[in-house]
From TrEMBL:
This is Ferrous iron transport protein B. GTP binds at residues 10-17, 35-39, 56-59, 116-119. Probable transporter of a GTP-driven Fe(2+) uptake system. Mg(2+) 1 binds at residue 21. It comes from the Bacteria. Residues 3-165 form the FeoB-type G domain. Mg(2+) 2 binds at residues 24-25. It comes from Akkermansia glycaniphila. It is found in: Cell inner membrane; Cell membrane. The chain holds residues 2 to 283 of 696 of the full protein. Belongs to the TRAFAC class TrmE-Era-EngA-EngB-Septin-like GTPase superfamily. FeoB GTPase (TC 9.A.8) family.
């Protein structure tokens, strides 16, 4: 079967399962994955451009953690055959939910940003400058209310376009972390790529970001690759330490603090309406 795969990703409780059920016409369950077995629900879905295989990944707050949910999400994101990502966020919690969205840049796939819970945003008098929001991120944005089935046709049309006509779809804009950080990330990615060490499933830019974070699982992987792996980690450690000194931040906090900074700046530009001051205070 050659149906293009489209992944639904999002934080827990963003309404991802409700959306999946609406799009797929399947109402089997809404809720968290029952204890123990974690698997991704999947369904064939018709779009105006043709059928896609929609996969509902378990809810995760970010990529890179050691939980089974995060590993499963990463595994799907690295599979071939994935043509687009639907990043579902809760419209009232964009400051936290967009963190995961920014991490999707690494996969170089078309991203549809779904502002779910639009009913709650309306009730809170929160509005968005959608064209500016789309331009700043390099995505298509669809506002949905999964409970009342609002925005589903538009979402299906976006999914179809992203999966079947990607050349006309915007390219996700690279989150810019500043010159010093970018230089270190490029250096790490290049060093890993040219090392001759076994190719990992994740994109090099993603591996570089995790190594800059000092992500335990990623560091352990390279540490287990023998002398060359350990030499690579030492080289990386030197530039981590230097960047950390320059930024005045512990290395594991550099990228996350940059990401939250980018999100704050973005929301200041695109979020409007009487609800903003209330959201900011909460
Ligand atoms: C309960 N608008 C509103 N208002 N609510 C929504 C929307 C929306 O657009 N989309 C989803 N919800 P999941 P994850 C619930 O289950 O799909 C609601 O984790 C309840 N349940 O109905 O499970 C949705 O898959 C009792 O709410 O999210 C669900 O991403 C009381 O958001 C919750 C109140 O949706 C999470 C809510 C027994």
């Amino acid at each position: 079967k050659d149906r293009p795969t489209v992944l639904l990703v999002g934080n827990p409780n963003c309404g991802k399962t409700s959306l999946f059920n609406e799009l797929s016409g399947c109402r089997a369950f809404v809720g968290n994955y029952p204890g123990g077995v974690i698997e991704a629900a999947r369904a064939g879905v018709e779009t105006p451009d043709g059928p896609v295989e929609l996969i509902d990944l378990p809810g995760v707050y970010r990529l890179g953690g050691a939980s089974l949910e995060e590993k499963l999400a990463m595994d799907y994101l690295c599979r071939s055959g994935v043509r687009a990502i639907v990043s579902v966020v809760d419209s009232l919690n964009l400051d936290r939910h967009l963190y995961l969205t920014l991490q999707l840049w690494h996969f170089h796939l078309p991203v549809i940003l779904v502002l779910n819970m639009s009913d709650e945003a309306d009730a809170a008098l929160l509005s968005f400058d959608i064209p500016a929001f789309e331009a700043m991120l390099g995505v298509r944005i669809v506002r949905t209310d999964a409970l009342r089935r609002k925005g589903m046709e538009e979402l299906l049309a976006c999914i179809g376009q992203a999966a079947y006509r990607p050349s006309g779809y915007p390219a996700f804009r690279k989150p810019e972390y500043g010159e010093q950080t970018e230089q270190v990330l490029d250096f790490i990615a290049h060093t890993v790529e040219s090392s001759g060490l076994p190719r990992q499933k994740e994109p090099f830019s993603y591996i570089a970001a995790r190594l800059l974070d000092g992500n335990a699982a990623m560091v352990a992987r390279y540490a287990e690759m023998g002398e060359e792996g350990r030499r690579l980690l030492e080289m990386i450690e030197d530039c981590r330490t230097e960047l950390s000194r320059q930024m005045g931040l512990p290395a594991p906090e550099i990228l996350s603090s940059k990401r939250y900074g980018l999100i704050r700046g973005l929301l200041e530009e695109v979020q409007g309406g009487d609800g903003v001051s209330r959201i900011r205070r909460s």
